[in-house]
Amino acid sequence: MTTHDGLAPVQASERVQALDVLRGAALFGVFLVNFTGFAGAPVMATEGQLAALPTAGWDHLARTTVHWLFEDKANTLFAFLFGLGFWMQLERAKAKGADFERLYLRRLGVLLVIGLLHAAFLWVWDILHLYALAGFVLFALRRAPDRLLLWGGLALAVVARLVQEAAATWGAAYDWHGLPDPYSVEAVLERQRVSEAGDYLGLVEVIGRYNLVDWLLSGLLVGWLFYALGRFMVGAWVGRKGWLQRSADYLPGFRRALWIALPLGLVLEAAWVGIEARVEVGQLPDDGAWTFAAQAVHLVAAPFLATGYVTALVVALHGRTGAWLLAPFAWVGRMALTNYVAQSFVYAVVLFGVWPGLALAGKIGTAAIVAIVAVAFAAQMAFSRWWLGRFRYGPLEWLWRGLTYGRLPPLRAERELSAAPSR
Fold it and tell me: Which secondary-structure segment (H or E) carries 281?
């Protein structure tokens, strides 16, 4: 296919297998954190409903494990990879003598529209529109020096957490022009009632009110914009170094980083979870000091643990067994947009009563959600493997590329997808 300015969609031979594996692994964590958070209190269930479930003990253990191992780590990795992918696209465009700027801005514009539609009609916690907005800022920083990308990105990550905490406190204390508190028991029960009635338009309306107060008026969007942009910048900095693109050349460094980042991240995040749990049950005073200490530990620990996951996956990929075991994550990662949106349908079918939904909000705990995520993600792996054996791109990736380049690229694959990733 001929595209203007010499730039064409990425072919399979141009992909970096490690990035697809990392993207797929991050998507599993995002799936798990989003589902358990949205199904929990005080979004689609009340504390009383969850405490009354016969699985409440197991649910608490599952929720604690998700906080410890995945919360803030999965989305950190996902955003980091977006920034790294940006730099790789920039380098590829320069090599082809292509007009990267115009096409990339169009790419972000298409992503913004997809994200806004997704947020309005399917999934309230959409990140696509947020990534598009942060992507425009990253684009403006494309010629920034390495020092600015690294230290500016880290600084934004710290500021983002402070802005998020301030927005949550401000939003909880302020009456937004008479709009109800989106996290009150009454608001949760209203969402359940509209959902169980199978009223899709009513559900869109109440979720829209939730977004208006929780996301826009509270200023939480700004905090998350800083959050994403900071991780984008660090990802772009790593992309400039070429460490993941040429991971075999830097494998000794990945091994050394693994033995530092992974244990340290696990221990510090366990401390964060433990302090917050003890404050919650009254074993530590709820005077703000311990909560501040827990958040400070988490602020340092989450990037360490995310780095530990990256290094562990890269090292494993360079072993025969690891490459074979991680291959299914690459299939999901190659179709990240399609699989991310598809996960929204899983949330909807399980939690909402709109046909063919099961309306299980408030009736199902975290342990069951974890099991559902495991089964659904395995199904995504199988479907992605089947699809990529026949087609070049996932369905939404194909549409995204077509709208970006002004012409739909060929969809049919020339040959079957290999059974394991090449190294």
Answer: none
